[in-house]
Structures are given as structure tokens and as C-alpha cells.
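[job 0412] stage=fold_complex status=start
inputs:
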Amino acid sequence: MNSSPIHHPKENSKPLDLNSQMPIKLVTAEKYTIDQLTNAYNQTRVDYMVPMPMNVARLAEYIHLYEIDLSQSLVALVNGNIVGLGMLGLREKRSWITRLGVVANQRAQGIGQALMEGLIANSDALEKDTIMLEVIVGNIPALRLFDKLGFKEHSELLILRRAPELVAKPTSKIYPMDKGNIFYCLKNRKGFQAWTNQVESLYRAKGIHGFQIYTPSGGHGTIVYQRTMFNLSRIMFETEGDDEEGIMFELLQHLHHQHPDLDTYTENIPVEDHRVQAFYRIGYFDVFRRIEMHRQLVI
Amino acid sequence: MAKVMIIEDVEDSANLAKKILTKHGHEACIAANGEEALQFVCGEEINLILLDLGLPDVDGQTLLGMLRRNYGMDKVPIIVCTAWPPETAKKMAEAYGFDGYISKPYKVTEFMGVVNEFLSNSPPQRK
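[job 0412] stage=fold_complex status=done
writing structure:
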């Protein structure tokens, strides 16, 4: 079993620090309404560089898309007031810690660590092999905490954005993909996928589209994306051939030629992926970066 | 006196911006999300919009497009208010066509410097 301190997964009291008499109580998030959780989450993020506030509908969608289990997610209380929360997503042998935050005036008192230890304990109790999480580059206190709790850096991820802009019509022909093809391709992608880009996330998302191209030199490219009324997002891709960056560029050219009025953002592309140059060439820019961290279950 | 709309979900931040503007003789109103902002701009005379990028219902970049294209705000200066590092804020402002940016946390001199730059030649616009 894991050698880290185990806290009762459902309810736990822990002293704040040596100078404080106020205990932290951890309770399961399912005791709260989505409205209350939304409010608590927003309170923890008001001073973040990337605040990412949510309304009730957005948080409910997030919980659905990313398979957040509220019975395994935790809310931290001090004197009966919510001071922090952390959510746990569950998939097969993996778990994902997300939406972790502590209200600004209660930080540096052990609340984040108590939440993390509670979430790790919940994950371990369910015998999940790997716990995943992401942290924004530059969030040193969080990085230190995750490192202390046994998380190791796995990869650095890019969050990119592109404003609507016309692009020239590409020469190659596109072949639209049906849902069966799209999910077949998503399932068979090579390499690492962040939680938000895993096939299970896409299964649950609305407005997923995709197409393929074949180049005269024998190259092949596939792109899958989400299209909503105002945005393109969740861009997933596979390329094969001598010039993979060129194929990527052509895929993006088709995408933006079809949707010139739509704003685009895409998350969690590994920084070392050489095809990211194609994104920059067609007008994407870095918004911020995350570090993906993993912690393996210790038996 | 000019009328400024502050689109900002963080109450403290919105109230601070309103306080600074009011102190400098302007009228300011607050919309806490995109939906409120779109309801508010209908039929209102507005000289300047201060727009936070991270809103709970729609992001600021998308809202900018809606205000400009669908709500007749194409001639009203729209300033992005953001805690992004200045380099990212500048890139964002240029790419999306914001008229300028103000960094958070607000510094009164810098805040009013940007606001004044746009208020001096902005006739009120009504949808």
C-alpha cells in the first residue's frame, strides 16, 4: 500500500498547523449542490493568473465530460465554512485530480495538502494505478506540494488559441469521417493523452467532427475537433508521412477555411510535438503551459 | 462624463474599477457575466467597455466578437482587463482586435491612463 499518510476518505479532521487550533474537516463533495460547488470553486480562483471561473452549467458539464465522481471528491471546511475543494475523476485504472483550490486568505495552512492527501487516499482505496493532474507552469507552491506527495513530471503541455481569420483554400480533398470512424481513430491514437483529450472525454462531448486528407506524396492526416456555435476546440490529430508538419498545416488550413468565423482554443498538446509549428504558422499563439504530473500506486 | 461598462465576475475587482471611474467623474455599470452584458448593452449609450477575459459563462474573446458583430458595439472601444503577463495580454489584444489592455491588479494611474486614451475620442454609441 501507499506509504503516504492516509486520511479517512469521507470525513477527516486535521490540525491546520502548529499555531492554529482550527481543524480542517474534509467532507465528500456529494453533500453539496452543484451551485454550492460552483461558488466554492470560483472563490478559490479569484486571484489566479488563469482564473477559469465557471457557472453552474459549465461545472455540471465538466463533471459529466471528465467523469468526476463527487462521492470521491472533497470539500475542506474550517469552522463550517468551505475553504477549499478538490475533485477526483475516475476511469478504469486511472484517476485525475482537478479543480483543486483553496480560498486566498486560507492558503499556506495545510488545507491544500489535506485535500490532496484525502484525494490520493480515495484513489488508492479504489486501487487506481495512476493518479494524473496538471499544474500551470509557474505555480511553484502547487508544484512543490505535488512533488512532496510523490507526483513526477510527465510532460509539458501547451494551451493554444487562434482568433478568427480567413485562410486560403487548400488544394487537397477532404474526406469527412462519421462517428464510428472518429472514435476508432481516437481510440487508436499513439502516445500520451491528457485526461481532457482522452477518448472518454470526447465520447461525452457534443459537436465532435472529423475529416481526413491524403497527400500526393502518400501522406495521411486525420483531425478531430469540437465545434460549437462560437468556438472550435479539442483539436486531436494524427499524421503519417514524410512531412508531418506539412500535413498538420494542411489539416488546420482545411479546418479554418471551413470555419473562418470561429474562435479556436486547444489544450494540452505536448510541447515537444514537432507538429505544433504548423499551429503557429497558421496563427495560433501560446496562452499558457501546464505540467502534467503522475503518481503511481505504491504496493 | 462618460459611461463605462465593466464586464467582470469578480466583485472586488469590478467594484474597484467602478470606484476609480466614479472618482474620476465617469458613470460606470457592472455586468457580472456575458449574458448580463449582452442584456445591458441593448439600448444603452456606452462610451467604453472594460472586459475581463475569464467570465463564468463565456470567455471574453467570444464575447468581444458578439458585442462587435451582433450588438452594434463595433465603434465602442473595448479594453481587455487581464492578469495575464503583459506579453500574453498584448498578444491576445492584438490577435482578437481589442483596442487595448489593462493589467490586473489595477494601478490607478495606469488604469486611468488607458481609459482616458480611449474616452477622449469616443462618441457614445447606441444599439
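[job 0412] summary: Helices of chain B lie at 11-23, 34-41, 60-70, 86-96, 108-119.
[job 0412] exit 0
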